[in-house]
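Example S7 (structure tokens).
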């Protein structure tokens, strides 16, 4: 019987990334039961790891004895000192452009527009960036293991592609000559920062 882990997320995209990476380890990853009804904790840390740990520890208390995974991830742009970083989903709302980073509104569009504005005039050679993910496994309110994953790229001056979500239309992969929004799902999953984080985490859990 496959080991089952619970993921503290309602995001279909995150679950897909986690499950794809976990298949190689014969591990089943399911959303934490009842997570939609559990009040979310405050994510007030200034690092991905800090926020991921806060969520993992908090949600693990709702599944006694089980391993619960939580991540925090986002985009780091070198020319902006690592911004938007932990505020990636809230980049535009922090600037007052949208009310909230709700997945049902157009915050992705506003986030991308603000990023382009911030990078206006920055030459291509200085538009280096990465998607970064910190992943934490916790049990009964205690951190068990942590891991990180990232993928390097560049920020374009205009969006390309219709796939993916978030900053994918602007995140360019030089080795593929495509943005994250232009590559097929299989290729994207092989490059996923979340997938890389869980692939780094699981061997320690299984040891």
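Recovered sequence:
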């Amino acid at each position: 019987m496959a080991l089952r882990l619970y993921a503290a997320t309602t995001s279909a995209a995150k679950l897909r990334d986690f499950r794809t990476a976990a298949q190689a380890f014969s591990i089943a990853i399911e959303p934490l039961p009842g997570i939609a009804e559990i009040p979310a904790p405050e994510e007030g840390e200034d690092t991905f790891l800090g926020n991921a740990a806060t969520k993992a520890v908090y949600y693990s208390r709702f599944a006694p004895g089980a391993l619960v995974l939580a991540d925090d991830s986002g985009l780091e742009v070198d020319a902006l000192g690592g911004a938007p970083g932990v505020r990636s989903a809230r980049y535009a709302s922090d600037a007052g452009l949208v009310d909230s980073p709700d997945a049902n509104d157009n915050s992705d569009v506003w986030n991308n527009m603000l990023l382009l504005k911030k990078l206006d005039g920055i030459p291509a050679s200085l538009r280096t960036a990465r998607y970064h993910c910190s992943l934490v496994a916790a049990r009964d309110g205690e951190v068990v293991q942590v891991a990180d994953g990232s993928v390097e790229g560049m920020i374009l001056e205009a969006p390309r592609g219709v796939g993916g979500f978030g900053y994918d239309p602007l995140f360019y992969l030089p080795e593929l000559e495509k943005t994250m929004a232009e590559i097929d799902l299989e290729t994207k999953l092989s490059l996923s920062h979340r997938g890389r984080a869980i692939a780094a985490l699981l061997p320690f859990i299984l040891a």
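Notes on this example. The chain has a mean pLDDT of 91.
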